[in-house]
Design goal:
- This protein has about 130 residues and is mostly beta strands.
- The protein has one domain (about 5-125): Jelly Rolls (Sandwich).
- The chain has one helix and eleven strands; from the N terminus they run E-E-E-H-E-E-E-E-E-E-E-E.
- The strands form two sheets. It has a six-stranded antiparallel β-sheet, with no helix packed on it. A five-stranded antiparallel β-sheet has the order 4-5-6-7-11, with no helix packed on it.
- Strand 4 and strand 5 form a beta hairpin.
- It is globular, with a radius of gyration of 14 Å.
Length: about 130
């Protein structure tokens, strides 16, 4: 049972780094994807899209959209099939875009379990 860790430094404008952590290489559908935004990134760039792709095995896309106050996460295989899991979460009503913002998407058995911002759980959209 080997852990998989992959970290991308400054993968796109506005993102300080993104990091995928999968505790067991035999269970690719379980892990955590972290995106750390640069200070003021959401004030300058909207939406911010953070993703990780390993064709044809794995893809995870996180769309952080201040205009709609949502974080959308899509998880699935990178083989042109539809996502296996899609969840939308609400951004907090009040937060400082000048802060460093850390977003975690937690997934298990190819299903998105939850998301948080700076360690605080985000509510699912209705």
């Amino acid at each position: 049972m080997s852990e998989i860790k992959s970290r991308g430094e400054k993968p796109v404008p506005g993102i300080e780094y993104s990091e995928l952590s999968i505790p067991d290489e035999n269970h690719l559908g379980t892990g955590l994807f972290r995106t750390v935004l640069e200070p003021r990134a959401l004030a300058r760039i909207n939406p911010i899209i953070s993703s990780i792709l390993n064709e044809p095995i794995f893809k995870l896309i996180v769309n952080i959209n201040l205009a709609t106050e949502t974080v959308t996460a899509l998880l699935g295989k990178a083989d042109n099939s539809p996502p296996l899991s899609r969840e939308i979460f609400q951004l907090p009503k009040v937060f400082k875009t000048s802060d460093v913002l850390t977003f975690d998407v937690i997934f298990k058995d190819w299903k998105i379990q939850g998301a948080n911002m700076n360690g605080k759980d985000l509510e699912r959209s209705q």
